[in-house]
Amino acid sequence: MDSTPSPSSSSPFDLVSSALGRYIPRGPATAAGPAESRGDPAAGQPEHDHPAGGPPEQILGAVNLDRELRVTHRNLEAPVFAGLDAVPGSPFVDLLPRGDVPTVTRRLRQVLETGEAHVARVQRLRRRDGSELVVSMSILPAAASQEGLTVSVIAMARRLHLYAAETAIGTSLDIGETAQSLAESLLAWGDVAAVDLDFAVWTGEGVTERAQGRIRLRRAALVPDRAWPEGYVTLGEDLPGDASRLLSQAIRRSDSPQSIVLPDREAIERVLGSPRLVRALVPGDRSAGVACVPLVLEGDPPVVLGVAEVWRRADRPFADSELLDLQELVARTSHHVDLARQHQREHTQVLALQRRLLPRSAGGTVQTASVYQPTTPDSAGVGGDWVNSFPLPDGRTALVVGDVVGHGLGAAATMGQLSMEARALLSAGLAPDEVLEHLDETVTLLDDAESGLAAGYSALGSTCCIAVYDPVSHRVALSSAGHLPPILVSPDGRAGPLPVRPHPGLGAEFALREPFGVHTFVAPPGSLLALYTDGLVEDPAVPIDEGIGRLADAVSAVHPWDTLQQAARRVVSEVMPTRQRDDVTLLLARMIGYRKGDTATWRLPARDDAAARARALVAALLRQWRTRDSTRDSVLLLISELVTNAVRFAGGPITVRLIRAGSGLLCEVGDTGNGRPRLGRGGLLDDGGRGLHVVHRLTSRWGVRWTDTGKVVWAEVVR
Question: What is the spatial distance between Cα 423 and Cα 661, in angstroms, rounded to a whole number?
């Protein structure tokens, strides 16, 4: 007989039971509930799903307690509550995890004392086998205080898990982390979870509906983290081609992506048909069933991004409701995978642009090293700063650093365009200030109404600094467009910023535009030049001059014997602000130049005998250098043609310079003319232009560069 009075018809327990659609008589014979009275074997194990024939959505239950917090009656018929030992006469706290007992007991007694309900708190309940069920628990006072309490429970574990999983999966734009989050969420339905993505999705490429036999799957996530059997496909590995085709054909039955379930080991081995594929796909001997759910990008037709796999032991077959839950979770999160794919594609494009702009070998006359550190490791933080160093065809070396406004793909595209344009113009012989004039016009054109602001990106205010080093005279010509002044360290260790005149930057309004100046200085062999962007020295806590001073001190500490790349990293680590707010870029260039015996320069008056005198001087030098006869003949003919053209068309003093570099000889003839020599298609009887045709035939390459006093025609001959 019950130790407490029977609850009245208006008690909370009766109301909750009525909501369940069933009323359980409160007799001793039936107090244990229908599962025990029928001897249902399912009551002895935790069922996480609704068996066939049971109520598919019944998730509400009730337990009545006396004032001693002991169970008097219960209504926990729904299969989701199987395994909860709410036996009449037992303490309710036996259903709680040990750590939750004090808190829940305090809440139960508080409702008894105050009569105020405690509604909808998430709580864990302990099953017979030690597993836990997450419920929303409410504590309701009985109609009469002496009748105790009613505890209503709503099993919302799956809904809560689906919501939490979707929220967690959408927090990262990294495709690996997104796949890992999905796999960790899927583990709630099985023992092992894996996510295999189409290789095009993994690399961020465009995804289209392809033929079934061409799919290539890569394992993007695998949980739990443990040792796997030999031959099993683990994280980062490609699935065997046969396995990829099988999975593709299975989930694309009837030309529509579908989930599939292989219920036991026999079915798995029959479908795979090969011991090698069984070893590659089955995570262990205990895994006897698998559910494969496609990650589908909705469209017409839908596109399969990959497949999620959940493996289970033989004693836990998949129920229909579980498959629906798995499908719902994967469907909710497939768009997160596609967003990560798009981010990966943009990130790859930005990094490809960035890598193309990294400094290459600057030749044997300059040593260079660079450090580029974006604000963040993703594509949103890549693309603003750029550095470049490259040898020019005439033997000089160009050093370029720029800071394009903004980050991401728009900034990276502008950065690539400006960098390539600067390189082309410098290679064509234009001076640094002339190159900046062209870049200034380019930024203005990029920002017009159609291609600039309408696209949501503006490059106005970008900065750039260009330095060109002559390894013979050891002079550097430098121009800056709104950039911070470079640091020069002389061979004796003195360091400081160069006195570069400030400039408003690229793309300024027409009324504010200023001419670009050229700062020329001598950089003897052993000098160190540092070009950088503002992210390296700008710190809100200190003045900008102090940041530049700290950089000068750090660069001056670089020893001539230090490896330049290691020195560049050390300088960045010492100077970079504690809280990085912008991209950080540093380019170090150590000037070496040509050896004195490898160059010779002569100044000749522009007279009729200038060509003969030049031939004699060059011939003597080539004999000293022990040049081959064939090479010597070509160089003498080349010098003769260039000097003759200078006397005939330009006038003024003529400069002849010969440089021995690597496997070639560089010949230069400078004059005061401003006309550009052009190679034209002359007729058989035309006299004009024959000299340039001779130059073209004798050399591997030739060109023109402009100076303050005229031009220099240069040509390279292979020794």
Answer: 22
